[in-house]
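4.2 Preliminary Data

To establish feasibility before requesting continued support, the project team ran the inverse folding procedure on a target of 58 residues. The structure was first converted into the token representation described in Section 3, and no sequence information of any kind was made available to the design step. The complete token record follows.
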């Protein structure tokens, strides 16, 4: 992803695809955060890395 795409990737309805809705990553973020976690996107030499951090139930 370009830096601009990476900056906007989690914004609702942002898409670089002609037929994209722009809700996929946003929906993932909302679900993860609703469970007390977080999502992090970063460019790596082999491509985009998506990290999901979730808390273990107590």
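Position-by-position output of the design step:
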């Amino acid at each position: 992803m370009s830096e601009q795409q990476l900056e906007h990737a989690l914004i609702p309805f942002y898409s670089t695809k002609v037929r994209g809705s722009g809700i996929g990553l946003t929906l993932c973020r909302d679900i993860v955060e609703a469970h007390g976690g977080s999502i992090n996107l970063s460019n790596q030499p082999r491509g985009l890395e998506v990290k999901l951090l979730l808390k273990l139930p107590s």
